[in-house]
Design a protein that fits this description.
The chain is an alpha/beta fold. It is about 40% helix and about 15% strand. The longest helix is centred in the middle third of the chain and has 23 residues.
Length: about 160
């Protein structure tokens, strides 16, 4: 069975992605503030580090996919949370999980809502990812869906053992 990790899995796009992956028969490691396999506050660096350790413990053979969907929008009372969760947590987790993804030639799907207000950072990060990980056999997708009326779903390829 393939295994994917999804942040922001308790609500919104992250929840829809996690539910769809499960419905397709994938194993999902859910990560969120609540109602998840791994609960963490991704605005805190130490929680991000704990998430990395917990994911690697649950997927010692590697990951087939990682979808960092956790994010906060402009309505959040503490606007300092926006870059901490939407950018820095994503960067920390993607970079920290790259070895696990590489072991299984996994995929990363970066989803950035138009409410994240991180477009410039997202563009720079995607460029850096492409430069650093170009030689690896990983696939990195980026989606900025804007207003989402109906979630579109991502199908990860089945693990080689399932083909």
């Amino acid at each position: 069975m393939s295994i994917c990790a999804v942040t922001g899995s308790a609500s919104g796009i992250g929840k829809a992605v996690a539910e769809n992956l499960i419905a397709q028969g994938h194993g999902v490691i859910s990560i969120d503030l609540r109602d998840a396999d791994i609960t963490a506050d991704l605005s805190k660096r130490e929680d991000c580090e704990a998430v990395l350790a917990a994911v690697l413990e649950r997927a010692p053979e590697g990951l087939d996919g990682f979808v960092p969907c956790a994010g906060v929008g402009p309505e959040v009372p503490n606007r300092e949370l926006i870059p901490l969760v939407n950018y820095f947590a994503t960067v920390t987790l993607v970079n920290g999980l790259m070895p696990a993804l590489e072991r299984k030639q996994g995929s990363v799907v970066l989803i950035s809502s138009n409410s994240s207000q991180m477009k410039e950072y997202d563009d720079n990060y995607m460029q850096a990812l492409n430069e650093v990980y170009f030689s690896l056999s990983l696939t990195i997708f980026r989606s900025s869906p804007g207003v989402v009326l109906k979630c579109c779903f991502i199908a990860f390829p089945k693990a080689a053992s399932e083909a």
